[in-house]
């Protein structure tokens, strides 16, 4: 189900709780909402649809990747950039890292550790920040 985008800064500043298999509907809603906003958005965190769970989705160009309980475990190559957010008007400065390593679970709760770089790494960092209550 397509959900409205959360714009309440107080809500967005709160840390998200770990997701469990009981949160599978949240994953579906998040994917539906990302697809509905694909002209303006390349990634979303569950708190952007009003659910404080550690779930993000990232558009990889050809497929939307689900990351449940993602944690950045390594990063290198810091750089400065400007980012926008569907939940906030305008753009803001952000420090990101060119390369990151993330542990996460997929939508079936299988565990993975993968490295990402470039634009994909930037999107993932932005969405994990959302899970941590950090907004740009």
Q: How is the topology of this model organized?
A:
Elements: H1 9-12, H2 24-36, E1 43-45, E2 55-59, E3 64-85, E4 88-105, E5 111-117, H3 118-131
Antiparallel strand pairs: 1-2, 2-3, 3-4, 4-5
Task: Explain how this protein is built.
There is one protein chain. This protein is α+β, with helices and mostly antiparallel strands and 136 residues long. The chain is built from 3 helices and 5 strands; from the N terminus they run ααβββββα. It has helices at residues 9-12, 24-36, 118-131; strands at residues 43-45, 55-59, 64-85, 88-105, 111-117. Strands 1-2-3-4-5 form a 5-stranded antiparallel sheet. The mean pLDDT is 96.
CATH architecture: Alpha-Beta Complex
Instruction: Work out the count of structural domains.
Output: 1
**Runs with pLDDT <50, length 5+?**
none
Q: What characterizes the major β-sheet?
A: 5 strands, antiparallel
Average pLDDT over all residues: 96
Strand order of the largest sheet: 1-2-3-4-5
CATH superfamily: Peptide deformylase
Structural class: alpha+beta
Give the fraction of residues assigned to helices: 10-25%
CATH first level? Alpha Beta
> In percent terms, what proportion of residues is strand?
35-45%
Distance between the termini: 27 Å
Taking Cα atoms only, what radius of gyration do you get, to the nearest Å? 14 Å
Q: What is the overall silhouette?
A: globular
Number of helices: 3
Give the SSE string.
HHEEEEEH
